[in-house]
Input
Amino acid sequence: MDTSADRDLGAICSVTEMAAKLRLSRARFYQLVEMAVFPPPVRLGTRRPFYPADLQEKCLEIRKTGVAFNGLPVLFNRRRKKSRRRSMHGAQYDGLVTALKNMGLEVSGRTVKHAVHVLYPAGLAENQNELLRDLFRYFTKDRQKSVQFL
Output
């Protein structure tokens, strides 16, 4: 856990900065201070609490070793990495969406997927050109109905 934030110890830091260095929210950090997992901040003549360099090091050591300020073991959960999950309809129909957009239509993977299921309930057409033509007609049929001939 030796990150640049760990090595960037100043003479003092605020509670918010200490919580950020520990990769915790400020609220969670205060909860852990109340539970004696981390040492309390220093308040010398100011209303704003802070952590001097020695307490910063102690907090970082607690996070790294898992041994709390009160001597008891503590487990810290890691934040889950947000996986960029791409839906199947977006990935499967990307080429069609791009082609239809190049034809001037505003479509998404979801709308193309729906149109394919309406046009081909038994499965996709073998010929990509026929599929593209049918999709274009499907999406422009609403426009054709809305155009009034004078």
User: Anything to note?
Assistant: The longest strand covers residues 12-14. DSSP finds eight helices and two strands in the chain. Helices lie at 4-7, 15-21, 26-34, 53-65, 88-92, 94-102, 109-119, 128-146. The chain has two domains: 9-65, 88-142.
